[in-house]
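Good morning,

Both structures are done.
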Amino acid sequence: MEKNINKKIYLKNHDTFFDKIIVKNRLKMASLIKNYLKDEELDDVLDIGSTNDFKNESSNFLIKNLKIFKNYKSISDQKIELSFFSKALNKSITDNFSDLELEEYKSDIVISNATIEHVGSLENQIKMCENIIKLTKKYFIIITPNRYHPVEFHSKLPLLHWLPKIIHRRILTLLGMKFLADEKNLNLLSHYDLVNVMKKLNHNNYEIKNINFLFFKSNLLLFGKTN
């Protein structure tokens, strides 16, 4: 019994430690985004992949710490009940959107943080970006962990994710991390992968920036504009 209690305390402290690191990184992201947008007049913002999680400080952190917008919207495969958003659509970003949905949720800026690596296959990642571009009036920002950072923050394991994906997934399965081993739940991207996605969409009006953690690129930020 005591061992189980100690394990729970360890896991809670472990998760708190990593959440603090995530918050620190997201403060860097917010600063980078604010500098990019500067004094641009933006009325509405759409957050892709919002979460109902209110236990972790890092949850929905960016959308709450950029600037004051007139309207906050959300599209998520979770049913968002937080009062922070003026309107929320419970739908996967990889689904097809009706003309009415596109019109209602189209926004000056569309932000997606730590979502594209969780939508599954490359085809789904392309579909997600295609929908984001359709939902964008002016700017879109897609943020994802860099596959080639030495530490993979979902599994908390170093270097294994540098192996070919099929081998990495087999090792995760052997380690009991079957959820993360499934491409549907985790499909990490590199700088090259983001470029490839934009190339397939024939969208050239973008640039990719990054923030560092432990001297390596930890997160990639794709800043795009409507063509």
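Second structure follows.
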Amino acid sequence: MLIVFDVIFFSISNQTSEILHLRSAICHLPRTLYFCSSMKVHRELAGSLPEFRNAVVTIGTFDGVHKGHQQILAQMKEEAARINGETIIITFHPHPRKIVSSVPGDVKLLNTLSEKKLLLEKAGIDHLVVVPFDHHFANQSADEYVRDFLYKYFKPHTIIIGYDHRFGKGRTGDYHLLEDFGKELGFEVKEITEQLLNEIAVSSTRIRKAITENDIDTANAALGYPYFFEGLVIEGNQLGRTIGYPTANLHIGSEEKLIPGNGVYAVQVEILSDQNSTQQKLKGMMNIGIRPTIDGKKKVIEVNIFDFDATIYGQSLRVHVLKQLRNEIKFEGLEALKTQLGIDKLQALQIK
């Protein structure tokens, strides 16, 4: 069932608050039941942000947009529906640790920015504001952060934030300072509980560790969806074709993206660009590793898409990692490898 509401509401001038409230409520129903406008993404502050309606704001990296984060998103949407407002997530790019950390290269993320956009839109968020994070922004005083950033650009009705949130130069701003400014400037501050924040921190750590250790079951359970990444299809040595398992070799554009460890995985694949684009998830299997049976030198990510023979060089794939099938091992020769790949394919086909 598809219900198209935006065209109807767009055609109504001088919308009443009752109509707006109904539309807001509709746009927070499960997305399988309706169609409404996509999440708006804003990359600049000055002169580009709209006048938000009763802005319900939270701030954070939301890396992974996992089950813990999803509780915060649900709280935001509930509050927005109550006050006929809009949900706004403020995040930062690049990741603040890349700017302020003494080891900036040591940042591995569950989501690239484009992946985060996809997940937040699916969650039903109205606006994502990506703030360029640099030393100038990091050196704002806590008062400047509230007055010249949060209040100036967002005019929040409600800020939902962790009790331990720190901001401003030297991390001198806190929840209580926000409450004081809220009384002065006219916005509410609502707390994300310590229990939920601890759950989020534990989940994020557990997910990263699980992915690194190939424990995809644990990672996916904590995420609430299959872990995924995107890569560009590049030319390989085409050896897979000679043994009946042609593969798409992937180049991962983001150095920050956390990639599972070496092994063979059951996957689902989406083709994202050009004439072969599809939103259908195609079954397949993926190898990450050095291919010890062949050369054992260069690490590769290669995906065999089942029952698929189109040429897709230069296109992008989104790979959803369902389960690890086995570790990468060295076989006695190509025939032994081919036999094992047949077993791997049968196992992958059984995984939903």
